[in-house]
């Protein structure tokens, strides 16, 4: 009896092993959309040298797994169809030892949607969310979100599942991707599948392969610095036995001496001074965690007394309690509080003097702490009255009231690089598992996390694009997958005077990539950003502009205008106008200004490598703009347009558009 039970158990084990050996990546699931018009790879693993049969809509294709168990078939190109079909995969020949079945499959257009937080920004946090979610009953649009994962080596299977677009599923999905896909579906009248691989705060090097970074001299140090930090960390761990048993984060010790530290009459002149918004863990207290207090005095007009005030404090990492003249006005905690804009109300009855002391208790449990965001997101004003706004950006007093050592928690022995900042790690964990699932193209919204190295962004992005095209290796013309990127939106306060800008420089690199790399295009968002929020809520227009590019450049509809006015050349206007340059534009049919005023946002350079000043004036003439320099500057001179973090707002805000209402791209024309 015992022997028979043992034999039975062995038989069950063998059958289970055989069945479990047939696996397909997570990108294959019920409700998926397959790409029309090109061959469609289906791949996975089975027992070595086992026969695999794939059936779909009357087609049947076989393959033999190799000695490692890997197999792949390529289904012939199909036409778009709203009629659901079933995909079956069988391993083991006629005996059908293992079988996978996927139902409700449509054939249409598949787009890969990737980048950082502005691509990942969800519908439920975007403009008109309630109405958009209620109207999102689009079962012909299918959604696949790859979970945020980072790995040092490529993953073959991945995670996730396809879902039908509905009011129940669209809220937590990418707004840009959804509005892009919705317009395509409506205009092309075919099913649309959207594959999302975004992760907030991610630099582009995380989406490239390690091999391509190592092969490019300008990019090698991304990998070299990471490897060096790994070695240093290994040495630190080796010298600190038991570090694994340390707590994950510090615990808030609770309010202590709050009344004194929040009081308006406290003498804080011996406190450190720190400009905010910024990360104080990166600056004065970069080697400390714990409880911090920040304070600032502000004088308000007498007319504000007795009015309710709005207090905005950008984003704070992690939790905070805010006080005005010793009275608590708000606090923020909960899940991921560092993503929350601090918006507090000072009650009218507490506004009884023109001298206000704003004090904020902040608890940083570990890692990077500080007050982050745009200077434009730090201010106080009467409720609903932005015209009387007083900025709170600039110097604050800062005290590390309860210092806590990073080496007393486990994160002090973890790599300082966040998972999504590690070179190639998202390429391995989020991109590799969905390749070579056939798709039409890629939409990309990223760049904010590469501002510190904008000079190498063009080189880096070309590596990312070619890594992905090589990984997919689609047949024929599909090999050069269309890559549609979003140029960074306007953000932070507009400049009083023209000058240098890391945001403008990175936008210029984005434009260079689009101009010089095949099948790569750019949609501008320069007029739809938010000075106070790095995540502008108008994702509908971003998705629409990307869809315009797809419809013209990918699907060949030449009636679509997909680009705003684009700089081509600058030239001296002539001897009779020594202070004037003529700036020529493409895509400039109906060149005009968005507000009917004269063109704004032009700056000229006094001399090579010299000071930039605002142009005296500008005027439109056909498809060109005549830019007039101030007295004392003669052509030829260098010209910039929209060259600032936020060139859109303020009295010098850019306003050039074409007849389609699309804004002109920022540019610089150097001597």
From TrEMBL:
<feature type="signal peptide">
    <location>
        <begin position="1"/>
        <end position="21"/>
    </location>
</feature>
<keyword id="KW-0732">Signal</keyword>
<dbReference type="InterPro" id="IPR039329">
    <property type="entry name" value="SIAE"/>
</dbReference>
<feature type="region of interest" description="Disordered">
    <location>
        <begin position="238"/>
        <end position="260"/>
    </location>
</feature>
<keyword id="KW-0378">Hydrolase</keyword>
<feature type="domain" description="Sialate O-acetylesterase">
    <location>
        <begin position="412"/>
        <end position="547"/>
    </location>
</feature>
<protein>
    <submittedName>
        <fullName>Sialate O-acetylesterase</fullName>
        <ecNumber>3.1.1.53</ecNumber>
    </submittedName>
</protein>
<dbReference type="InterPro" id="IPR008979">
    <property type="entry name" value="Galactose-bd-like_sf"/>
</dbReference>
<dbReference type="GO" id="GO:0005975">
    <property type="term" value="P:carbohydrate metabolic process"/>
</dbReference>
<dbReference type="GO" id="GO:0001681">
    <property type="term" value="F:sialate O-acetylesterase activity"/>
</dbReference>
<dbReference type="InterPro" id="IPR005181">
    <property type="entry name" value="SASA"/>
</dbReference>
<dbReference type="Pfam" id="PF03629">
    <property type="entry name" value="SASA"/>
</dbReference>
<dbReference type="InterPro" id="IPR036514">
    <property type="entry name" value="SGNH_hydro_sf"/>
</dbReference>
